[in-house]
């Protein structure tokens, strides 16, 4: 027998399985799971056919593969039971489908989860979820119900015996999120990763629920004094499972709710996480990264250590020391101050004039003059007035998306991506061109030119407000001359004067950036790095690269070729030539390396550009060969990430790119997070938060467009030499 879940049955073993199951219904389901595996059905197909969950199918397959009939005698500790976890269904609903479709249909979600669509419909009905309207539930069906339009997870605790609780704060006042909302890719990744991490600590999740009559109250840890001071003005809610008592230190007016058996603890935490990503994405990212890290550490601890997590303070958890630009009063710096106002509003999402003055140091008169000009020009627009309790209601100002746009083009050895991005970071259009060995530079640039003209014409008024065209390309490149210099994975192109040639064809100036640098710019302007001054972006695609944002601005280096990740990984692993130079590290081409490792392990995949996607899909279905292939590559990449952390002394690392789709992102993040917090010399004083890119596979293309915004709007002063700082 193997331990990977693969099952091959002889006729004698089939007969033994039939005799074992007999007429006992509880055994018949287990036998059917094994028979489906032997027939070649995937985990998802078997779950859908039998109307049970995918983790249940995986668990029974693995038990039989390891122990034969003996493994089917009792339910394993790993995996969920046949009963449906309603919180998991709702969390999956909020996370959204992996397709471009924005919301689930009941049948599509049922197929995805391996349950019946009538079950999904009943859950949606009980939770009052409308797939054709707002998908967030109005309240959690606890006892008593908990209104949860905008909850905030403050603390959670769980033991292996089923006792658990979580503490949430009441609705947070306010309107739109003050930072960019989480993308669909990020929501799916965090849902899958957090649920897996929590169930990895305590797999018996569905054994929770209300305590049996007469059961003893189980003790729980106390909250540190003053930890909840920030939420003093909010009503707190305590949700309990398995008879757990709340922690000591909660306010007297905290309301207690008991979870039903149909809601698991891990799934409920994942559900709260999805709701938080909707209304306060930046704070949620920091908190959820910390919770995932806690669960990962505990999953490595034998003996079922209890989960105990407190929400970290945003600034303390990330070590963020955002550079606060302050105003200058000299008349010559009017442009700087205008950009300063735009930057402040962009980062916050919306600000009143008083708040702008507080953040920038400009006088109220200067803010009034500048915002009046920006409102007249259409860059800013007024939102609905909001009351602060006393005095005249404030009028928040925000960027007008249609005030400007940028084209972003990512030139990659496998795929060229072309996007149109508005001033608020929304991707308005996306086009791709598959690259083959016969794709020459001239034909590719002609496609870029045609696509740009078509996109701008289709965008109407927005297209007339084009601020520029940004191109992201693999290194090395000559940034001053705008020339690609024989990229290692694209040597057939040779030296291409991309910036000059494309600029001539478009009749517009073109900004050329290294792809990893562009991804870092995009993440700072539009994603997870938007409130941090210092971070490293680890970009994984056909190759591996890195970009950095340091002291509040992009760090390009002297030639624009900063962050050559492959050489750092080679030195970290001791892969050097006899002369001491770096050797090529195969894993620094993550996609091809994963496919090669999977093939060596016996996992066949479709040839060509879709092979990596097939391996990722197999890993998402629990195939041990695919999981090991990805983890093996991630471990090598992680050693290079350690060198990046040591080099830049940053405490935030963002991971993204085409090689990190949501279904396998946690495999990469777990290995990288472990390495950068284990090996560096300064690990005791510099915990590193590793988080998922909110721009994901489009990071380089969107980052190229964000580079145009950065050049146009980022406040800089000029030195005597004339260079911007």
Automatic annotation (TrEMBL):
Coiled coil: none annotated. Signal peptide: none annotated. InterPro entries: ATPase_NBD, Homeodomain-like_sf, ROK, WH-like_DNA-bd_sf, WH_DNA-bd_sf. Belongs to the ROK (NagC/XylR) family. This is ROK family protein. It comes from Streptomyces violaceusniger (strain Tu 4113). The lineage of its organism: Bacteria, Bacillati, Actinomycetota, Actinomycetes, Kitasatosporales.
């Amino acid at each position: 027998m193997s331990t990977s879940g693969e099952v091959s049955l002889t006729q004698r073993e089939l007969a033994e399985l039939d005799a074992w199951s007999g007429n006992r219904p509880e055994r018949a389901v287990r036998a059917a799971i094994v028979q489906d595996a032997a027939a070649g059905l995937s985990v998802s197909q078997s779950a859908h056919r039998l109307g049970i969950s995918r983790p249940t199918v995986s668990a029974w397959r693995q038990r039989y593969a390891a122990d034969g009939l003996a493994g089917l005698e009792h339910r394993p500790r790993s995996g969920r039971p046949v009963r449906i976890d309603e919180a998991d269904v709702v969390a999956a609903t909020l996370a959204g489908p992996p397709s471009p479709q924005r919301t689930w249909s009941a049948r599509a979600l049922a197929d995805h989860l391996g349950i019946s669509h009538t079950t999904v419909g009943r859950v949606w009905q009980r939770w009052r979820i409308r797939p054709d309207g707002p998908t967030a539930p109005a309240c959690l069906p606890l006892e008593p119900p908990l209104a949860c339009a905008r909850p905030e997870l403050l603390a959670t605790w769980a033991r292996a015996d089923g006792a658990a609780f979580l503490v949430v704060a009441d609705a947070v006042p306010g309107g739109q999120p003050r930072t960019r909302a989480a993308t669909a890719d990020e929501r799916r990744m965090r849902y899958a990763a957090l649920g897996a991490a929590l169930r990895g600590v305590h797999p018996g999740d569905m054994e929770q629920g209300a305590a049996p009559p007469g059961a003893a109250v189980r003790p729980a840890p106390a909250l540190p004094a003053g930890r909840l001071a920030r939420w003093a003005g909010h009503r707190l809610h305590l949700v309990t499972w398995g008879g757990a008592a709340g922690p000591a230190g909660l306010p007297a007016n905290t309301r207690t709710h008991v979870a039903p058996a149909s809601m698991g603890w891990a799934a409920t935490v994942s559900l709260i996480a999805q709701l938080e990503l909707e209304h306060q994405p930046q704070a949620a990212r920091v908190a959820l990264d910390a919770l995932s890290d806690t669960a990962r550490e505990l999953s490595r601890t034998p003996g079922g250590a209890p989960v105990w997590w407190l929400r970290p303070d945003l600034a303390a958890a990330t070590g963020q020391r955002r550079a606060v630009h302050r105003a200058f009063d000299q008349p010559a710096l009017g442009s700087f101050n205008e950009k300063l106002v735009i930057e402040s509003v962009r980062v916050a999402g919306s600000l009143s004039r008083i708040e702008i003055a507080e953040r920038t140091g400009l006088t109220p008169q200067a803010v009034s003059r500048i915002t009046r000009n920006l409102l007249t020009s259409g860059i800013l627009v007024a939102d609905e007035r909001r009351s602060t309790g006393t005095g005249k209601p404030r009028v928040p100002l925000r960027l007008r998306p249609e005030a400007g746009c940028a084209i972003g083009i990512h030139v990659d050895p496998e795929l060229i991506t072309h996007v149109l991005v508005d001033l608020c970071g929304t991707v308005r259009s996306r086009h791709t061109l598959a690259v083959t060995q016969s794709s020459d530079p001239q034909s590719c640039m002609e496609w870029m030119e045609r696509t740009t003209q078509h996109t701008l014409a289709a965008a109407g008024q927005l297209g007339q407000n084009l601020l520029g065209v940004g191109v992201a390309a693999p290194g090395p490149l000559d940034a001053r001359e705008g020339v690609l210099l024989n990229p290692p994975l694209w040597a057939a192109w040779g030296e291409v004067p991309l910036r000059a040639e494309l600029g001539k064809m478009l009749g517009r100036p073109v900004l050329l950036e290294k792809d990893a640098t562009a991804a870092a710019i995009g993440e700072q302007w539009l994603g997870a790095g938007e409130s941090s001054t210092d971070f490293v972006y680890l970009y994984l695609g056909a190759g591996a690269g890195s970009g950095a944002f340091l002291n509040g601005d992009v760090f390009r280096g002297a030639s624009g070729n900063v962050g050559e990740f492959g050489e750092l990984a080679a030195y970290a692993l001791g892969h050097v030539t006899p002369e001491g130079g770096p050797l090529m590290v195969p894993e620094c081409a993550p996609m091809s390396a994963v496919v090669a490792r999977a093939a060596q392990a016996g996992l066949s995949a479709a040839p060509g550009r879709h092979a990596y996607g097939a391996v990722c899909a197999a890993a998402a279905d629990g195939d041990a060969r695919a999981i090991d292939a990805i983890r093996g590559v991630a471990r090598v990449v992680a050693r290079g990430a350690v060198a990046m952390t040591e080099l830049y002394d940053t405490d935030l690392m963002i991971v993204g790119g085409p090689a990190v789709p949501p279904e396998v992102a946690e495999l990469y993040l777990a290995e990288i997070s472990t390495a950068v917090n284990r090996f560096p010399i300064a690990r005791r004083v510099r915990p590193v938060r590793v988080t998922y890119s909110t721009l994901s596979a489009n990071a380089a293309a969107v980052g190229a467009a964000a580079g145009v915004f950065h050049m146009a709007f980022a406040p800089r002063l000029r030195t005597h030499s004339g260079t911007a700082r």
